[in-house]
Amino acid sequence: MRAGRLRAAAARPAVTTLAVAVLVLAAGCNQSEQSKIGACPIKPGTLCAGNYMHGAKLLRAELFDADLHLADLSTADLSEADLSGATMQGVHLAGADLDHANLSYADLSGADLSRADLVGADLTGADLTGATVSLRQLARANLCRTTMPDGTVARPDC
After folding, report:
1. What is the largest CA-CA distance in the chain?
2. Exposed, middle or buried by CB within 10 Å (0-12, 13-18, 19+), for 129?
3. Whose CA is closest to 60, among 41, 35, 79?
4. Domain co-membership, 26 together with 63
5. Domain extent for 6
6. How far apart are CA 27 and CA 36, in angstroms?
7. Residue partners of 142: CB distance under 8 A and separation at least 6
8. Are 149 and 77 in the same domain?
9. Residues 93 and 151 in one domain
């Protein structure tokens, strides 16, 4: 009987070690899945032009200086993301959550921002020429030297 207890006790560390190894591998997989969407690496300066990222979860993503022109980011969660200086001409952001996102100096010309949440979004120096966005949406964003859809500049002296 005592030998049986010793064998069971000796087996426990192996099971625990195996469980830890599985958890570490699973964590590594989750991290790599979150750092890429398809072939697009989620990092500053990334080249993801034309990529399909509809509904992506990119909360607080660091995508400054990224090339996302013509990408489909409709219904994506980009709240608190840093998209400053990003090239986003013709990007599809319909229904996207851009709550408190940093879009300063981003090129959003021709972008579809219909139904996008822009509450608290920083649009300092951003170019919205020809973008689909309502004045109601922009009323809750931070505008400073922002080129509006009609080509006028909002708050040029801020």
Report:
1. 87
2. middle
3. 79
4. no
5. 2-34
6. 15
7. 120, 121, 122, 123, 124
8. yes
9. yes
Please say whether the beta carbons of 40 and 46 come within 8 A: yes
Alpha-carbon span 118 to 149, nearest angstrom: 15
Vertex 9 angle, CA 7 and 12, to 5°: 110
pLDDT per position as a tens digit, 37-79: 878 899 999 999 999 999 999 999 999 999 999 999 999 999 9
The pair of three-digit structure tokens given for residue 32, joined into one six-digit string: 């790599």
122 residue type, one letter: D
Q: Which two tokens stand for residue 101?
A: 């996102």
Q: How far apart are CA 123 and CA 130, in angstroms?
A: 15
Task: Let me know whether 110 and 151 are in one domain.
Answer: yes
Cβ atoms of 136 and 150 closer than 8 Å? no
pTM, two decimal places: 0.76
